[in-house]
Amino acid sequence: MIPTEDASARKREIEDKLKQEQETLSFIRESLEKSDQLSKGMVSILSSFESRLMQLENSIIPVHKQTENLQRLQENVDKTLSCLDHVIRPPGTIDRYVTLEHLPEAVLQDIICISAWLVEYGRNQDFMNVYFQVRSSQLDRSIKGLKEHFRKNSATSAMHSPAVQTKRKETPTKKPPKRPGTIRKAQNLLKQYSQHGLDGKKGSNLTPLEGFDHDLRGVKHLSDDKHGAAAGKDDVLDIEIDSYIHCISAFVKLAQSEYVLLTEIIPEHHQKKTFDSLIQEALDNLMLEGDNIVSAARRAIMRHDYSAVLTIFPILRHLKQTKPDFDATLQGTAASTKNKLPALITSMETIGAKALEEFADSIKVDHTQRLMVPVMTSESSSSASSYSSEFSRRLLSTYIYKVLGNLQLNLSNKAKVYEDPALRAVFLHNNYNYILKSLEKSELIQLVAVTHKKVEGSYRELIEQEIQNYQRSWLKVTEHLTERNIPAFQPGTKLKDKERQIIKDKFKGFNEGLEELCKIQQGWAVPDKEQRDAIRQAEKRVVSEAYRAFLQRCANISFTKNPEKYHRYSPEQVEEMIDKLFDTSA
């Protein structure tokens, strides 16, 4: 038998273990309950998520399908616009690429039958009025839509201007050569030169189109903001010019197509009158826009802004090229209708001739008039030479030579403002050199040479003459280095006080003159690097040779106890000083 005490201890031990097991079981039971609750919550969340996901999927799938459809439509629109751009980009390619189908063949045949019945049995001609009103509105909308599309497309992509084209035998509806931005470049050049001549005064690394304000009293740089605004304005102007030229070509082509359609529907003896009425609205709008261009050019002339008149010439050229097709298309219409384009051409010719004449005269007569140079970019010169069939090359050559002569007179008058002859020479040198370089770059030099073969040589002579005038300013430096007033003496001979003073004065005069000229002329500007280097080299050679010879003559002469006081510069230092002429950064 187990002792009583041992049995009691054993019982307590079993009871303790049982209690622990019960507690553990209770904890496990509570954990299972919590886990079950969490599982139910997770299932509920997943069920809700699945439900919402299905709802979202049901919502997204139709949107996705619609998006795919829209993308396909967008691609089709882009492809269509691309093809349309390819068709309308040059004004003349409409001829080759566009085949207009106003109505389906079946519908057209029905309309023809109805028209014939109304004429024969209905004794009613009111339908002709309805017809031309509907078609007239459609024609005008087509041209306006073309203009709007062209403007939007040009705002985001570089368009090739048809304003400048080479002379050719084809009709005006052929593809022109690519000459981007010609009018804008030409206008910028004219505007910049009109506002900023080529000064000789201070300026930081002045370029040929910077640094000269209108009254010649100082120097200023062009503002970047103004440049940006001007460039933006000129871009818009290019777009407007190209847009108008395209619309003129489109009108001719669309009018031809309308006439072909009209001849199938309208009785023969009413065709001309109906066609005349049909094209009036679109034609009047185009002529009104042309009149506005002429009025803008006239206002520009009144402001003496002759560069703005450049917009007239590419439009005038295109109108003249289009006129044969225009006349053929409008044959049989009223005289007032046929005369609208010739009247616009005459207005543009008149205002263009007036601008050219007043521009040439203003340069010579008005000494306060802002300078303008009749020199364009290479693209513009090609445009000028293409006018040879319209304006005699000799007349154009004579006109340009007249402008150059008046410009030279104007420059001579403006140069008188400078009291310093050397600065006056630098001013004239800069301008003569710039004009010659621009003429050569634009190839207008060949056009001027048609009537004045020596024009290039004349400008080179003027440039060389002004260089010589400038070099005279250094005579007051080199005159101190001559042998004049220097007595003949043997080495080692003791000089008299007067003789020593003569040598001292020569050193002093040379030093002061050199320092003064270098200080003043360092702030002047010669924008052409080649010319600037040539002037420096020539001056270094003359001054350095004279200075070396003078130092050699005085080498063994004791004329002062402090030679460093008078012999301040070595020949190399003198050359370094001359190398800093026309360099404000030195």
UniProtKB/TrEMBL annotation:
One of its GO terms (molecular function) is phosphatidylinositol-4,5-bisphosphate binding. Pfam families: Exo70_C. One of its GO terms (cellular component) is exocyst. Residues 245-369, 379-579 form the Exocyst complex subunit Exo70 C-terminal domain. Keywords: Coiled coil, Exocytosis, Protein transport, Transport. Residues 151-186 are annotated as: Disordered. One of its GO terms (biological process) is exocytosis. The keyword Calcium does not apply. Residues 4-31 form a coiled coil. SUPFAM superfamilies: Cullin repeat-like. The keyword Transmembrane does not apply. Gene3D superfamilies: Exocyst complex component Exo70 (1.20.1280.170). Belongs to the EXO70 family. Component of the exocyst complex involved in the docking of exocytic vesicles with fusion sites on the plasma membrane. This is Exocyst complex component 7. It comes from Sinocyclocheilus rhinocerous. The lineage of its organism: Eukaryota, Metazoa, Chordata, Craniata, Vertebrata.
